[in-house]
Every structure is written in C-alpha cells, then in structure tokens.
C-alpha cells in the first residue's frame, strides 16, 4: 500500500478540476491596488463579481455592481483555470478597515 488512496479534497492539487472542484473553491483575500472612489465605498455584505482579464499578465479583478473595478485579487492557478472554464465567481466583502478590504471569493453557481 502506498497510502495515496485517500480522496482528494477541495484545493488538492492535480488535474484541471472541473466544475465540481470549482464549486468548492473558497479564498479569503484582500483587494489589491484598491481603486479610490470604488473600493472605499464598499461595506461588509457587498458582493463583487470576479473577472479574469487575460494578459499577459492575466489579471483577476473584483468589479462592483456598476461595472467599475474595485481592485485586483491575488489568484490561485485553480481560480484562473475555473474562470477560463467559464465558472462564474463572486466575492463577498467581509471587512473594511481603512483602505483594506477583505473578501471571500467563491463560485457563484
């Protein structure tokens, strides 16, 4: 026995994942390079759309309900792959402290 028979959970490496792996993806991130006039208007409970802007470099951005960029999100390879597959993602604002906005990124299925 090799000990590798354990099931892989969400976030486990390998493969392209598919929609099921994307559905279980959860990331806690701070918005990077917050856009003045947009990010500073956010409040806990707000929802942002997560979009992939293909580059190079590829950028993952959080967009408010008026279509304005609030700032960037530090992605994982899995998040980028899921966005490329067309899986929609959103970010719920958890906390706002001054210019720091913390969000939870998750699939919007």
Q: Which properties best describe this structure?
A:
109 residues, mainly beta, 6-stranded antiparallel beta sheet, 2 helices, 6 strands
Instruction: Please state how the strands of the largest beta sheet are arranged side by side.
Output: 1-6-5-2-3-4
Largest sheet: 6 strands, antiparallel
Please tell me the total number of domains.
Answer: 1
- General shape: globular
The level-1 CATH class: Alpha Beta
* DSSP strand tally: 6
How widely separated are the two ends? 38 Å
The stretches of 5 or more residues where confidence is low (pLDDT under 50) are 1-16
Examine the secondary-structure arrangement and name the CATH architecture. 2-Layer Sandwich
Discrete helix count: 2
| Helix-strand string | HEEEEHEE
User: What would you call the quaternary organization?
Assistant: single chain
Q: How would you sum up this structure, described in words?
A:
By secondary structure, this protein is mainly beta. It has one domain (18-107): Alpha-Beta Plaits. Helix content is 13%, strand content 35%. The chain is built from two helices and six strands. A six-stranded antiparallel β-sheet has the order 1-6-5-2-3-4, covered by helices on one side. Strand 5 and strand 6 (100-107) form a beta hairpin. The longest helix has 8 residues, at 77-84. The chain is globular, with a radius of gyration of 15 Å. The chain starts with 17 loop residues before the first helix and ends with a strand.
């Amino acid at each position: 026995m090799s000990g590798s028979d354990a099931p892989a959970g969400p976030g486990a490496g390998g493969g392209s994942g598919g929609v099921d792996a994307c559905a279980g993806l959860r990331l806690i991130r701070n918005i990077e390079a917050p856009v003045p006039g947009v990010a500073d208007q956010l409040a806990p409970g707000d929802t942002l759309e997560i979009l992939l802007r293909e580059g190079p470099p590829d950028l993952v951005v959080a967009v408010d309900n008026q279509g304005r960029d609030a700032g960037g999100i530090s992605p994982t390879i899995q998040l980028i792959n899921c966005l490329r597959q067309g899986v929609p993602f959103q970010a719920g604002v958890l906390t706002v402290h001054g210019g720091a906005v913390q969000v939870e990124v998750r699939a919007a299925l």
